[in-house]
Amino acid sequence: MALLKEGGTAPDFTGTDQDGKSVSLSEYRGSKVLIYFYPKDDTPGCTAEACAFRDNLPNFNKLGVTVLGVSTDPEAKHRKFADKYSLPFRLVADSDKVIVQAYGVWGPKKFMGKEYMGTSRVSYMIDEAGLIAKVWPKVKPAVHPEEVLGWLQDNK
Description:
Elements: E1 14-16, E2 22-24, E3 32-37, H1 44-62, E4 65-71, H2 75-85, E5 90-93, H3 98-102, E6 106-111, E7 114-119, E8 122-126, E9 132-136, H4 144-154
């Protein structure tokens, strides 16, 4: 797993969100986008992170930043997750793992001594020109949105 580097071009992608609507990174050109990758809908860490983004979304909106969550779960699972926790942002389904591989977040993981392939919890801030402005390779789910907002305030 090799993460993308700051300053590089963010790979464009097209997927579908929890409503089955097409979503492409290129449609957000001209504005900032935070893409946060997470392992699985409705698990403790992923729920904490999603709810923290939900609660902080007005602050992201004030700064002109769109938040997109990406996991390999299918649209229907994203829909259930979004409904259960009133998530007001788009969750991109990447069941074929094209996006997670393009962003270098798919790879070997370990849990309770077992090794498996999965998505690492990584976030990328994409600037208005489509370049990677910041990479967060190690994310603490419950406080990550505040960490991103702090970085945004410092880099206005």
